[in-house]
Amino acid sequence: MLEIKDLTCGYNQRFYLKGINLVIDEGGFFGIIGPNGSGKTTLLRAITRILKPKNGEVFLRGENIWHIDFRELARTIAVVSQNVSTDELNVGEFVLLSRIPHYKGLQFLETKRDEEIADNAMALTDTLKFKDRLMSEISGGERQLVLIARALAQEPKFLLLDEPTAHLDITHQVRILDLLKKLNKELSLTVIIVLHDLNLASEYCDRVALLSDGAVYKEGFPRDVLDYKTIENVYKTVVVVERNPVSLKPYVFLVSEEEREKHKKI
């Protein structure tokens, strides 16, 4: 499992995370949600050793991540981030980059096995057909799938994703999250995902942690976290929470200012 104990960290002496305590079991689909600036991406960076804690520790399978060899950590955790400069590479070359942590000794080039693993990752994400196209020539949704393919080719046990559905239409959002859920179930891949959309988090995540002002406001099953009082307290806006009639999971409805004013008069 991944365990975060009393974590405090941030940037330039400004600490955005304060006293974070979380336990994420292997094989789960764990969502990190919260308003802009609440510390979601900062938490991912702390988990992946990009940010060093001021206080507290992050343990991976019982070992402090700062005591784990970097190559070994890269073979265990893969990250799908938002900003990756890749336009000069074709899709196949980009996905193959993820095999570097698995290189042995004086190996400088990918092997036949590396190519097979990369091709399999592209096949799983339905991106093998783009293998010879430049990254700059594919759409945003296709790009996100390629980013996931690269992470899968790393053969990780934990997959961390920072808002992989941002700026995508609902077709691509569902396609990507359905794929992640399938990989989670079939490969026992632990997924830790930052999401802005509360309804996507509710529908796909086994558990969620709601961050507010750099701290965990509430953590648990979506049905326990996504109630209207909690959401209104954290997001400072009026919502209605009902159950999705198909999945029976919480579904958050926004209420516009115009409608709020109408109901005040009734």
Question: How would you describe this protein?
Answer:
The strands form three sheets. Strands 6-7-8-3-9-10 form a six-stranded mixed sheet, sandwiched between helices. Strands 2-1-4-5 form a four-stranded antiparallel sheet, with helices on one face. It is of the alpha/beta class and 266 residues long. It has one domain (2-265): P-loop containing nucleotide triphosphate hydrolases (Rossmann fold), CATH 3.40.50.300. The N and C termini lie far apart (52 Å). The protein is built from ten helices and twelve strands. A hairpin with a 2-residue loop joins strand 9 and strand 10 (215-220).
Keywords:
4-stranded antiparallel sheet; Rossmann fold; alpha/beta; 10 helices; 6-stranded mixed sheet; single chain; 266 residues; 12 strands; globular
